[in-house]
Amino acid sequence: MGAGTEPDGSSRSDEEWERFLRESVAGAADAPKEPSARARTVAQRLRAEPGRGSEGWRSYTPAQPGRRKVWYVVGLLASLVLLVVALAPGRIVELFADTDSQAPPKKGARLPTMAEPFRGSPAASWADGAAGITVPKAEAVGWMSAAEVEQALARSRDFLVASSLDRGVLRGERPDKAIALINPRQKDVQDLLATAFRTPSEKNDPLLLFSRFQPSRTHLVGDVVKTRGRLSYREGERGALQVTADVTFVYPVTRADAGGDDEIVRTIVRRELVLNWDDPAKVSTEPGTFSIVSYKYDMTNGGCGAPTGYFTPPFGTDRRADGAGKEVDPYDRSTPVGGGDSSGGECDRATRS
Description:
With 353 residues, the chain is an alpha+beta fold. It is built from nine helices and nine strands.
């Protein structure tokens, strides 16, 4: 076989061999893996000529460091994201959604335990106690300076703590600290307080303002109540500072006489309170107290029937049948508070707790 002849006996010109080699260098799909002796000779001559057969590779190689750099940066960012997610998963969710009002995604059912009473609940990632109640930045409103507004907001949160988080109150004690913050000259509320603890009724029920469990029947599990909510404020009538509180409380409880039975129920209460910090020059009030404009709450797993002055979580056979009551998601804070029902009507049934 001659120097310019292929295995099939055909011959190629030098120009064809040069084109063949250029295409081979560029990665032609049908290029042979082992060129002939003539091909190697022409290839050597091409490589010897300046500027021939090398420009394609030169234009490709500079991209390699860039690619490596891009992938390094992407990998580093991905590692940082994974680290943040591992350390603070709850905060990541808050960055991408309005977690205060949006219903959390449903999770697979995992039963609570005495050691982990919020296990399997969206509340597991919520803050503990007062830390879950967001207080806005204070600015001057109506008759109050910014400093006075800040103090009023702090006392409004103090009322929520004293009425719905205080351990003694939760065990059925009288909420004296909370009552001390209510305007003693507000007749309708004082009438409620005068009778609610002695003879609770639908109209005068302490649960309208306070969270209470009967210690002979129900025990709180652990020392933590999970919360999520916020305070907001605006100028009300006669220049009053009007504070609105919208807070959800999650109470894990078990039967007082459970013995070895560790059945845990989570009572979920969402409260909305509207409070006026009135100008003493315009409204009859005492310094350091507020008037209650309105109060309402939604409650699930807190019992039904005639008011007793206490939440009465259902245990065991007391649990409602699957078809009873209206289904609600107690963790969905995107809907308005509708008002609790502790009287004899049908109770809302939680789709999850």
